[in-house]
Specification:
The longest helix is centred in the last third of the chain and has 28 residues. Helix 6 links the parallel strand 7 and strand 8. The strands form 4 sheets. The chain has an 8-stranded parallel barrel, surrounded by 4 helices. It has a two-stranded parallel ribbon with strand order 1-2. A two-stranded antiparallel ribbon has the order 3-4. 46% of the residues lie in helices and 11% in strands. It binds D-xylulose and cobalt (II) ion. Cobalt (II) ion (CO) binds next to loops.
């Protein structure tokens, strides 16, 4: 079997003083943290598209990375080589899951029948590799945004033919998910939105998007898919306005259309920041509403307003993310998919390893710091105390539904001004507790 990454052998944990760029400094897969191995807390996944397909192209320049797998030109040979390279890569890094779009794994043919043939041939090949290695599918999805047939959307297209085509892709991608034992199926609606309301029937488009999702749920359940469907919110890019804007918007949509029993959220860090939220905010909204599912880990650039999909190296964000994950009870069907790519200038095969090592170490650190933050308890205790006025007296009466507007007026008249009992928010003190925990890990 050809080796695609001969410059790297198995990447091992060497600890925080190691200077070996091909070693983990924080990620120690089998170390037990808070009752289970780090690898089971984190459930790292490789994204097929960024890792094996994307070549560093941007709107101003062509690819910088060789993705011919040794000079191959036949698209099906390349597709098979990607499987070999991908499984070698995951095995060397100790990554136990992967995610893909239908279009990432096999080339589109001249007809849908040909596309299907290509797709299923590679799905079967992937299945043999999964059996050999024990590596699992985290989630799959259908790429209903790249092809010109989706220029006006897929589920939300003005054109019923595009809708039907998307449905056929989704049908096959769900079948593949079931065949490969995946426990997640993602809807990310890159073209589900609009450029201008002047040409858009928003109401019909949203109803249709829900129709497509209901069909997917009914079909998936009928063929034995017992995992979670996910919506991955994103406010814009490529479409100016995307319907799945952020977690809160998606929640309203799922509840309105009765999809809330089957769907959870796949939260992506850079999508959160594009929606002018923090990553933690999006996770909190999902968790508080029982919709926390999976994570696309990456980060944006504070100076750029688009989805740069950088590998996550911001330790603060990783700690606060893992705090939310732990508070949500950890991953069940979901995991942490690196929807991230090496920079255009980081174009050698080594860079893909350095990128994943950076991301995995950052989240391993995040997990360890989040566990310590919860064990330390000062921040949770502060929040609990801050709301103590709701545990008794008038606060409890309000929560219990016993206080009327008239009772509250009487209370306000009797008690007078409130300022002296407000208490400081202590933001800076809390930030310094977070720093102390991180700096002493
Ligand atoms: C695009 C994005 C997608 C989804 C899957 O911003 O995040 O790759 O994760 O379609
Ligand atoms: Co994503």
């Amino acid at each position: 079997m050809k080796e695609y990454f001969p410059m790297v052998q198995k990447v091992k944990y060497e600890g925080k003083n190691s200077k070996n760029p091909f070693a983990f400094k924080y990620y120690d897969a089998n170390r037990i943290i808070d009752g289970k191995p780090m690898k089971d807390h984190l459930k790292f996944a490789m994204s097929w598209w960024h890792t094996l397909c994307a070549g560093g192209a941007d709107p101003f320049g062509t690819t910088t990375m060789d993705r011919t797998y040794g000079g191959l030109t036949d698209p099906m040979e390349i597709a098979r080589a990607k499987v070999d390279a991908g499984f070698e890569f995951m095995t060397k890094l100790g990554i136990e899951y992967f995610c893909f779009h239908d279009a990432d794994i096999a080339p589109e043919g001249a007809t849908f029948a040909e596309t299907k043939k290509n797709f299923w041939e590679i799905v079967e090949y992937i299945e043999t590799k999964m059996k050999e290695t024990g590596i699992k599918l985290l989630w799959a999805t259908a790429n209903c945004f790249n092809n010109p047939r989706y220029m006006h959307g897929a589920g939300t297209s003005c054109n019923a033919h595009s809708f039907a085509y998307a449905a056929s892709q989704i049908k096959n991608a769900i079948e593949a998910t079931v065949k490969l034992g995946g426990k997640g199926y993602v809807f990310w609606g890159g073209r589900e939105g609009y450029e201008t309301l002047l040409n858009t029937d928003m109401s019909l488009e949203l109803d249709n998007m829900a129709r497509l999702m209901h069909m997917a749920v009914d079909y998936g359940r009928s063929i034995g898919f017992d995992g979670d469907f996910y919506i991955e919110p994103k406010p814009k890019e490529p479409t100016k306005h995307q319907y799945d804007f952020d977690s809160a918007t998606v929640l309203g949509f799922l509840r309105k259309y009765g999809l809330d029993k089957d769907f959870k959220m796949n939260i992506e860090a850079n999508h959160a920041t594009l929606a002018q939220h923090t990553f933690q905010h999006e996770l909190r909204v999902a968790r508080d509403n029982g919709f926390f599912g999976s994570i696309d880990a990456n980060q944006g650039d504070a100076l750029l307003g688009w989805d740069t999909d950088q590998f996550p190296t911001n330790a603060y964000d990783a700690v606060l993310c893992m705090y939310e994950v732990l508070k949500a009870g950890g991953f069940t069907n979901g995991g942490l998919n690196f929807d991230a790519k090496a920079r255009r200038g980081s174009f050698t095969p080594e860079d893909i390893f350095y990128s994943y090592i950076a991301g995995m170490d950052t989240f391993a650190f995040g997990l360890r710091a989040a566990v310590k933050l919860i064990e330390d308890g000062r921040i949770d205790k502060f929040v609990e105390d801050r709301y103590s006025s709701w545990n008794s007296g008038i606060g409890k009466d309000i929560i219990d539904g016993k206080a009327t507007m008239a009772d509250l007026e009487k209370y306000a008249l009797e008690k007078g001004e409130v300022t002296d009992s407000l208490g400081s928010g202590r933001q800076e003190m809390l930030e310094s507790i977070l720093n102390q925990i991180m700096f002493t890990l």
